[in-house]
Write a structure and sequence with these properties.
Layout (H helix, E strand, L loop, with lengths): L4 H10 L30 E7 L2 E11 L2 E10 L2 E13 L2 E8 L8 E9 L2 E5 L8 E6 L3 E10 L2 E11 L2
Antiparallel strand pairs: 1-2, 1-10, 2-3, 3-4, 4-5, 5-6, 6-7, 7-8, 8-9, 9-10
């Protein structure tokens, strides 16, 4: 397995654009598919990956009948190397993944529309966002894999974040 700290450090730097914007960067809904929040209930709980480099934790909870939220942290020693707040919102029959990373994108959220639901796995995309353009969540029952991908500095790139359920 790749060292977790380097991909996560890269995620912290580029997950949300550093561009100064006045509003949320929204995903184009034209490719969105119909889905409900119930399709994502398997996300609820605490997911974690402990390695020599640190601990990645992502905790999902139900906010309301139309939204889930998650807090993601990567801790190295006593330091938080990365933190992100995510909301999964059901809007007009479509799921929207909204990421807001600390210190990124002028603290503004970036939206990704659900474009595919394959065997319970979610694919969210925002072709207008610089990097990542795609966020994937794969469900393996007691473990998940979050994956980001897109064109980074002219090169197709992909980073994976496997986690096991702890609660």
């Amino acid at each position: 397995m790749k060292k977790l700290i380097l991909p996560f450090a890269a995620l912290a730097v580029i997950a949300c654009s550093d561009k100064k914007k006045d509003a949320i960067e929204t995903a184009e809904p034209k490719n969105a598919i119909t889905s409900s929040l119930d399709d994502a209930k398997w996300l609820i709980g605490k997911w974690q990956n402990v390695s020599d480099e640190g601990t990645l934790t992502e905790t999902w909870m139900k906010e309301s009948d139309s939204s889930y939220s998650a807090k993601t942290f990567f801790i190295t020693g006593k330091d938080t190397a990365f933190s992100e707040f995510v909301r999964l919102v059901e809007r007009n029959g479509n799921l929207v993944y909204i990421a807001q990373a600390a210190g990124q994108n002028d603290e503004k959220p970036v939206e990704f529309a659900l474009t595919a639901l394959e065997g319970g796995n979610f694919i969210f995309e925002n072709p207008k966002h610089d990097y990542p353009n795609k966020i994937v969540y794969e469900n393996y029952g007691d473990s998940i894999k979050a994956r980001i991908s897109g064109n980074k500095l002219g090169v197709e790139s992909k980073e994976e974040f496997p986690m096991k359920k702890v609660k």
